[in-house]
Amino acid sequence: MKNISKYKIDKSILIPIFIFFIISVLTLYGATSILPSYMDDLPYKQILWYIGGFALAYLVMTIGNTHIYRLTWFLYGLGILSLLGLFFFGTSINDATCWYEIKGLGTLQPSEFMKIILIITLASVISKFNEDFPNPSITEEFFFLIKIILIVFVPSILTFLEPDTGVVLIYLLITLIMLFVSGIRYRWFLILFGLLGLSVLVVLGVYFINQDLFIKIFGTSFFLRVDRLLDWSNQSGYQLENSLSSIGSAGLFGHGWNVNPIYFPEAGTDFIFAVFASHFGFIGSVLLIGLITFFDIRLIMMAVKTNKLVNKYIIAGVTGMLIYQQIQNIGMTFGLLPITGITLPFISYGGSSLLSYMLAMGLIFNISNENMRYTN
Asked: What is the pTM assigned to this prediction?
C-alpha cells in the first residue's frame, strides 16, 4: 500500500477532470427539458457517479499499479466472466443485452470495465515480451501477435454478440495503438490493415449487392448495425438531422444555458456535445475542445517522460481510447463520422463508463506520481 499523504498528483490532469465534472453536470441539467421525465435526476446521479469515480481512483492509488499488474490475469478472467454472465443474467435495453440490473443503483455495463482490463493485460504482455526479447525475430513477433490476437478476440466476440459494436471498435483501436507504441515491425500493420480492408470490402459488397443474402449470412442484428453506420454518409437519420440543426442554429454564443429549441434523442449520452454546443455556441464549443486537447496532450507528455515500459503502454492505451471516443462522439454530432453510440468521456452521463475512466485515471495518477518522484 502507498502512503497517500505523500502522494504527488499532476494538477494539470486533475484540474481538467474537475472542470469536466462541472461541465457534465451543468449540461445534463440544461438538457432535462428535452429528456424524458423519468430522467430528470440524471444530473444528481452523475454527481454521485463522479464521487464514486474519485473514490475508485483513490482506491487504485492506495493499491498501487505494481500490485494491480500482478493481478493482470485474474482481472482478465473476471472481465471475461462478467461478459459471459450477460447471456444468462443480463438486462436487455433497446435489443441489446449489455447491462446488469442492480437494484437501487441502476445498470452496470461490464464492457466498459473490460476496456481498462484489456489495457492492463496488453500492457503487461507487451512489456514482458520486450523485456524477454529485446531484438525479436520475425517468428518470435509472429507468435507474440497470435497471443495478442487471442487475448483481444475473446472479449471482442462476447461484446459483439451483446451486441455492442462501438466498444469492439475501441478494443481493436486500443490494441493497434499499444502495438504501434511497442515498436514491432511495421510490416505487421500493413498485413493487418490489408486483411481488415479486404474483410470490410467483402461485407459491404454483399450488403450493397444482395441485402437478403447479407441477412442470411450475418443476421438481422448485424444488418441493422451496418445500416445505421451508413446513415452518416448521406446525413440521414432523425438524431443527426436534429443535432445538426441544434448546433447550426446556436451561432457564436449559443441559445443560452437550459434553452433547447430542438429536440433529439440521447441528449444526455451520445449527443451531449450537441446540447453543450446549442447552449454555449461556437465559442463554448471551441473552449471545451481546447480543454479536451490540453488534457490529451498532458497525457501524451506523461507517456514520453516515463521510463517504465508497462507504464508507457498503459498511458498509450488510455490516451488512444479517450482520443478515439472524443473524435468519434464529437464527429458524429456533426455528421462527419458514423453514429456508433460512443459517449463523450467525462461529459456524457453513464455510471459504468465514468467509473471506468476514473479507474484509468487512478492508474495514470500512480504513473504521474512515479514520474514526479523520479524527476525530483
From this structure: 0.89
